[in-house]
Amino acid sequence: DDGPRVGLRESVWSSSLGEYYIDLAFHTARAADPNAQLVINDYGLEAATAKSSARRRAMLDLLRRLRDRDVPVQALGFQAHLPGNEEIDKDEVSRFVSDVKDLGLDVLVTELDVIDDQLPADFKERDAISAKRVGALLGAILDVTRPTAVLTWGITDRYTWVPIWYKRSDGYANRPLPLDENYREKPMMRTIKQAVAGA
User: Fold this and answer.
1) pTM above 0.90, yes or no
2) Residues of 150-177 as b/e, b for ≥16 C-beta within 10 angstroms?
3) What is the pLDDT of residues 153-165, one digit of tens each?
4) What's the pLDDT tens digit per position in 166-184?
5) How many whole angstroms from its chain centre is CA 120?
6) In 10 A of CB 126, how many CB atoms?
7) Segments of 39-96 assigned E as strands
8) 90-102 and 50-68 helices cross at what angle (nearest 10)?
9) Superfamily assignment of 12-198 in CATH?
10) What is the mean pLDDT of residues 32-49?
11) Domain ranges of the chain
């Protein structure tokens, strides 16, 4: 996040240990399970905004420092809570993924959903925009590499965290996930399937 510690959010960990808390977490995880894939995961890396661009640069710099210190990080996870009202910076995300791969790291998509509180009320229009955002992100990654995994943050609109923080002002239910509240497939699910099948 924005702040004085090279992009790191102020927390009890960073205040007490500086950036070293990340090293400690990865070395501790490796000692606990030598076979686990160790992933650093973050959000806000995808959009065509100055803030996302700064976050991509900060993450790449952090990954390089971790590799230089022999921290056993093996992959980067795109947390991917995609703001529906922001375009995906497809070219820059592809370049970023290429730089991550050059460090010898895998790439995953984790917690994927679309924050749709600013999108139109019409379900079909909203679902189409959400699917477009997901397709742009997956396409940007797949232009460089096949992600190790594509994981959504839930599967059905019936159960989602989104309205806790991003409730729609028009009273309509949020639709952030691949299946609707009745577990019916939405365009987002078809987009994910097509992307993964074509990779």
Assistant:
1) yes
2) bebbbebbeebebeeebebeeebbbbbb
3) 999 999 999 999 9
4) 999 999 999 999 999 999 9
5) 23
6) 22
7) 39-42, 75-78, 81-83
8) 0
9) Glycosidases (3.20.20.80)
10) 96
11) 12-198
